[in-house]
Amino acid sequence: MTGPTTRVLALLELLQSHKRLNGTEIAEMLGVDKRTVRRYISALEELGIPVTTEHGPHGGYMLVTGFKLPPMMFTHEETLALSLGLLAAKTLQLTDASPALTSVQAKLERVMPEHIQARARSITQHTNLLLPDSGLPQEQSLLMPLMEAIESQRRVQVMYVGKAEPGQQRELDPYGMFYRLGHWYIGGFCHLRQALRTFRLDRLTEVTLLKATFERPLNYNAAEQFKQSLCAMPGNLKVRVLLHTDLDTATRELGTSASILTQEDNAIFIETVVDSTEWFAWWLVRLPFDFTIISPDSLKQALRRRAEQLMSYC
């Protein structure tokens, strides 16, 4: 989040979408301290926005009941975020959602001031995003029913087809979804396996919404659960490699695999899980910048063998 004006507008949106927020909650959401929150509240009051302040351990801030907010207002940063988000969704070719995306863009442009509207249209017309394929058509057709099940916290029955397995019916409590390297995934509790599982959508041929409901675990994150399950797979090795370059250069070089990059202070690391150190050593050799293998030792040995093999060609 950038300057104070943007944060004040963000605070107004937060108060509109929440019945009551305390100073600590607002400070965390805006990335400021509680003293700054009080200053932003005062700024809203000076603009004529009636904010009620309740003191005490259970107090907080809220808009006066019945107050009607002015039409939607967008900063240049918000316009950029909205336009790029819509453009990314279109580029991913979510065919079922294409008419909805066009409708959303038209509605947003109608409430934008002329100069902001021109910025949004320019981004749409003159900006291109090179993204990985959005997956197979059957994945796209399953997105809406699965998202509905996640929102309503209702169990689903799916037909799962493995690489070399016949179709198998499973009941799943869908907790969340994520998108990775051109494919959609759904994570949740599999009643057949009685454990958390992740399924790639192109392996599902049917989705039926059931009446049974569930409680989603607090702070569940489908992508994080997927990463943890990879680490726990027998035979897989956790890899950590220090890259002697900056984050922008590493991100450009790794492209769609940039999600395996982590940053600690000014240091850039590759952190991932592999089932073949020989293959990963070959992949590392292709990088155009220096690196240092932190772990595991078996990867260091594989890289030495690869280096000796390359030297033998000279």
Automatic annotation (TrEMBL):
Pfam families: HTH_11, WCX, WYL
GO molecular function: DNA-binding transcription factor activity
Cited InterPro entries: ArsR-like_HTH, CBASS_pafABC_assoc_protein, DeoR_HTH, HTH_11, PafC-like, WCX_dom, WH-like_DNA-bd_sf, WH_DNA-bd_sf
PROSITE patterns: HTH_DEOR_2, WYL
Keywords (A to Z) from UniProt: Transcription, Transcription regulation
Entries under CDD domains matching the protein: HTH_ARSR
Membrane-spanning intervals of the chain: none
Positions of the HTH deoR-type domain: 4-63
Protein name, as recorded: YafY family transcriptional regulator
